[in-house]
Amino acid sequence: MATGTEHRHNVGGVRAPGRAAITAAHLRTDRWWLAPAGTAAGLLAFVVYSTWRAFANADYYASPYVSPFYSPCLAHDCQSMRGGPNADLLGSWWGISPAVIILVFPLGFRLTCYYYRKAYYRGFWASPPACAVAEPHRGYTGETRFPLILQNLHRYFFYAALLVAGVLTYDTALTFRDAHHQWGHMGLGTLVFLANIALIWSYTLSCHSCRHIVGGQLKHFSRHPVRYRAWRFVGRLNARHMQLAWASLLGVALADLYVYLLASGVFDDPRFF
Amino acid sequence: MSGYEARFRVWRGDEHGGELRDFTVAVNEGEVVLDIVHRLQATQAPDLAVRWNCKAGKCGSCSAEVNGRPRLMCMTRMSVFDRAETVTITPLRAFPVIRDLVTDVSFNYEKARGIPAFVPPPELAPGEYRMFQRDVDRSQEFRKCIECFLCQDTCHVVRDHEENKRAFAGPRFLMRVAELDMHPLDAAERSGLDRRRTAQDEHGLGYCNITKCCTEVCPEGIRITDNALIPLKERVVDRRYDPLVWLGSKIKRRSS
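^ Those are the sequences you sent over. The predicted structure of the assembly is below.
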């Protein structure tokens, strides 16, 4: 007599023949869906916002602040920023927003980041949706084939992200000017930019590739005391990589939003001195 | 806090089929799930099969799934559950079941045999090994593993895809490769054994999509993903995907 608990053939995973005959895909009773749903919602919100801002090609400069989405600005039609990070490297043929040129690098860095991979594999691709919750896919090859084998390019994006962080550091230094480009001033935007660059650097340096390059690749720490110390420092940051990933994502969006609000005339930058 | 009667659903069966059966069992203060399973054996189900040994979270025998989460039964306190809650106990769902809560974990021993052992440095005799603590710290973290195989059980690469068991060694054994590759005295490379290449080609490191479930379930708190799997992936990148590192190592080798 069929009891409904016999093995169903031609089904895989936790229902594969030989395994305990339990038809449920999972037996978790906690709110396991909350974390992937929250992650997906957070990432989706950022994607929508950043896509709008990246393609808007407007309101990205309010002296002395330049949006991190548009820095460095490398196209012919960039807004003039005195002493700012603009250089007409691509000429006039570039027809769309200059933000797209530079955003490829931080986007690639985050897209191939070991934390974000976990986040979107779980949140968007349900591979798996949560631990011990069966994934819906028939087959799985992980990161062994194209296109996911390209995740191994993370290290190159890390090198690029270092350069971008350097430019954003320069932008932050420029925020100590006033609207007339005089040095020795500070406004609320300066604090926003300082917070943003601190988070950007913390996230970038906490990267697993960075941890490997500074010392993780060594077999003998005792022969490389300086690199060992650097590895330990990066390791402490790395333990908070997830938190830094989210904080820096929020930080860069807020810095851009701040510039947008100033440039579109919603309010004036409160000046401290 | 006094004792109470708790509701349990325990999977009973074997490879031919089975079902979740309901039980009501007394629970006393301070007890763990394994205590309840033993009481169940003593009072209501004397033929209930369960594997256990130390009751101290050190032997890795009593691995099971409690409310759908891979856990050691001896380290899962009853106080974490609501008294009105029905606690479901099943065998590990990534491995073939033998009977009731006992599974056949031989997959793991087969994979263990596939990892070449520590290669002793030829210039040192046994007893002459000397190393700095900071050089072995990384490997020693992985030596805390009690081989409960909860990480193997929860890893979706094999849990949800039986067909991947042939190609993928699982987090526990990729961690073993990392442990040896990071070991200051392992002479595998000098003997012609490239552990990084084997990690990718023979043990399926590329299947890992670093979703960290192995780390989440590890009862020893080993940071398997951050400290073993990702560093191993980065070592493979050194070897395979980073021409700068490849070039640097070639130049270094030629000049030395």
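The radius of gyration of chain B is 22 Å. The mean pLDDT of chain B is 95.

Shout if you want it in another format.
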